[in-house]
Structures are given as C-alpha cells and as structure tokens.
Amino acid sequence: MERVGFRLQVKKSMMAEYKVRHENVWADMLQALTDTGWHNYSLFLDESDGTLIGYVECEDFEASLAAMGATEVNARWQADMVSFFESLPGATADKSFTRLNHVFYLP
C-alpha cells in the first residue's frame, strides 16, 4: 500500500466554504474515489494560512490518480472546486498539488 501526502493552498477567503463543500461531498464522487482505489483519504486544513494537506492510501497512486481523472464526476468536481485554490499550475487541483516526501510510518 502506497501512502501519499500532498499539499495545496486554499484561498483564505474561501476556507469556510471549502469546509462546507466537504461536509457534503457528492455520493457519486465518493463512489468514484472508492472504485478507483482511494482508501483512508483525508484532508487537513490549516486555518491560519489555507495550507491544505491531503493523505491517501492506494495500491498504486499514479494509477488511482489517472483512473479518477478519467471519470466524468471528477471533471465536474474539479471544475466546481477550482476557484477555491491559489495558483493551480496544472489548471485543476488534482493536477497541481505538491507531493510530499514520506519519511516515517508507525504501523
């Protein structure tokens, strides 16, 4: 199992609404994440500056990311969420995050 951490930057002005959106993630989005191999997926938001840290476990992260990227629901979700983030060089959050180096795991 691959453990992956990543970072994005949520606009400070959008943090409250970002949290609200994640209280009601679309059922078809949740199903697509599960179907494409995303497990123990978590997001953590630093409300002092908008830093968003994501964590996910996958058998093969690149394959799961690609499979998710091929879904119609992901395209809708990414389009709906793009305005929440600071600069996205990859045009959407799923193509713009900074992957973090995994340095420790306590099983």
UniProtKB/TrEMBL annotation:
Pfam families: rhaM (PF05336). GO terms for molecular function: racemase and epimerase activity, acting on carbohydrates and derivatives. GO terms for biological process: rhamnose catabolic process. This is Unannotated protein. It comes from freshwater metagenome. The lineage of its organism: unclassified sequences, metagenomes, ecological metagenomes.
